[in-house]
Amino acid sequence: xxxxxxxxxxxxxxxxxxxxxxxxxxxxxxxxxxxxxxxxxxxxxxxxxxxxxxxxxxxxxxxxxxxxxxxxxxxxxxxxxxxxxxxxxxxxxxxxxxxxxxxxxxxxxxxxxxxxxxxxxxxxxxxxxxxxxxxxxxxxxxxxxxxxxxxxxxxxxxxxxxxxxxxxxxxxxxxxxxxxxxxxxxxxxxxxxxxxxxxxxxxxxxxxxxxxxx
Length: 214
Description:
Oligomer: single chain
Strand order of the largest sheet: 1-2
Shape: globular
Distance between the termini: 30 Å
Number of strands: 4
């Protein structure tokens, strides 16, 4: 049911063996009794004790993060371990209860992209891997800046907004093209800030790994 990464994350979150066991039982019950066909209805049918289990397993700040869920994706992911989370509306954001999380590479990315990223970041700490995603978050934000009629920025398009754009492609070729643009931009900044030298190296490694796999 849980892979090694799921177990590690729950251990880091302080999830007890009892909660892990009960979560496993909830997942099995959902599978056997139509919970995945109507995840919102299933979540609403759970006892307060089970709501608390889901809150702790998914490291949500309060029970409202579970019982306040309003989307099918958010409810569906409450009934799945971390390794099996889904992005049903394909916005590159994973909803889990009321929480919305930027996951990189996005869960709907080609497997080759995920493997190439894992190789490029092998040996990094979890914090280093998180920081390494910053250029991709920055590009996503830049694409989703909202402008008024005068061309002045007035905010951001959020996932679910009509103008929101998911920049992450569906094919290896899409990703290769995006990485090429990002590499060129990162190189153009190296003379101004040495941190971009390392960023460029990572992007190049990511791109080369992906080329080998596609």
